Predict the 3D structure of the following.
Amino acid sequence: MKYVIKHYPKYILLFAILSLVLAVITVSDALVLQFIINNVKDSSKIPYYVIVISVMVFILLEGFAYYFQQFNSEYLAKKAVNLYRGIVFRRITAQRISIFDNHTPSKYVSLMTAQMDNLDENYFAAIFWAFYLIIQFIVACVIALAVNPTMAIIAIILSIPNLLLPLIFRKVLENTKIKTIKQTDLYIAKISDYLFGFADWKINGGSKLIDTQEKIENTRVLQFQKSELKAQNLSTAFNHAFSNVLYLGTWLIGAFFILNKQMTMASVVAFSQLVINISFPIYSCADMFSQIVGGKKLFEKIETEIPVNSNELQNNLQLDTFKKISFRDVTFKNDQKKILDSLNLDILANQKYVIKGPSGSGKTTFLKILTKQILNYKGLITFNELDITNIADQTLYSKIGYLPQHGHIFETTLANNLSLYQNKTNKDLIEVLKFVELNKWANEDSLSKQISSESISGGEAKRIELARLLLQNKEILILDEFSSGLDKDTLRKVEDRIFSLPHQTVLYVTHVYSNELINKADQIIQF
Ligand SMILES: Nc1ncnc2c1ncn2[C@@H]1O[C@H](COP(=O)(O)OP(=O)(O)OP(=O)(O)O)[C@@H](O)[C@H]1O
Ligand SMILES: [Mg+2]
């Protein structure tokens, strides 16, 4: 909430004023009732048509106030979520790759969509609504105290059980909510995963399995929602009963005063209407409270899952021209086995390395460790004699261009895919397209064409990804399986150019190596 108050103070002030106006008008219902009853008793006081017109004006006023207050509060909730969504997205993008990779992208997608909508309804909108209800409660209590202090105090005492309800139900409401959120998360993650592999299971006979899996996860979501609803409605039922105690209790006490000639019928009617305005906020607040409690849990969950990136080094260490990277006794193991075992090697400037080895031998892992995508290795890695753990990720990345084994084509123009939205001239883009043998797209028309991973071939995608990193003009080029999907002829031409780059160090992982390629390399690293 502090973000919202800081960013939208004017909106918050407007909302507070509108809430006060609406509360006063709503609570004045009671006075209107009293006005009608008092004046119909004695028809000579005010003509009937004046009463009707006055009431109509009042209804109109209330309508306007309601519209403006509601619109403002809901819009403010949307603005709050919009702001928070942006903040979370920037926190995600500021993460280090090693931390980002702990979640699947679908988890982040669920967080940015379903969970943000949940936050809108259950947290921000609920807080603004609760704020209004508190104002209405206070205004109603003040007017009730002014009209009849004894009755008002009795009414406030009768509302105490209802006020205590949220405290009693708090824990169970929190727990059930968080379980539903977790299950929904899991459901979204699984569904995205299934849909990403659509063709794989569609063709390879997994349809039935997918449908059954969806059913299982969906049923689980429903089960958790059922528990949550049970807790919510139990709290609401108590709430309802206690509200009735307050409302009917007021009538019974009012009847007592009428019998003793201490109150008129009109003032009891007005008072019971005032009590409705006192009990309605309490009644709704219990519900609001359960939403806010659940929403707050969700908010805390997002905050802990996507913390502000405080792990990244904040030093201004600058790197000199690349001379040498050294691996000293680098060991990396996952749960089951050692993937790298006491690796020792040097990578020298302007040398071209071919890295080969069987599938699963640790080539990609080696590159990920070198690019600080994996941090939990043992041993020492230095860049120009500096331990890479002491070099900020972005500083290291200013030296390295990286083509991942499974890269990504963005759903935008070819030009944006190449430049990644940086300022590059068409001339540069065309030149690099020619370098990677994409001559057919080396023209301005093609640059502005929309592409996606579905609309281009695997080999074309690889070449666009290569062109993308060449444009950055880095000193070290790391290419993980560039060769996959490329025909021999094209591959040979592009490899020739890569291995003839005069000023760059190349680490070239491939399964497709000919004698020709081995001859081009300065060194071979065997995994
Ligand atoms: N995130 C991970 N968690 C656990 N194990 C992993 C992870 N990534 C890779 N591995 C394991 O590490 C080993 C090395 O994988 P890596 O991807 O480095 O091999 P590779 O030599 O690049 O293989 P390929 O030639 O098939 O690309 C494999 O046995 C793999 O199962
Ligand atoms: Mg690999």
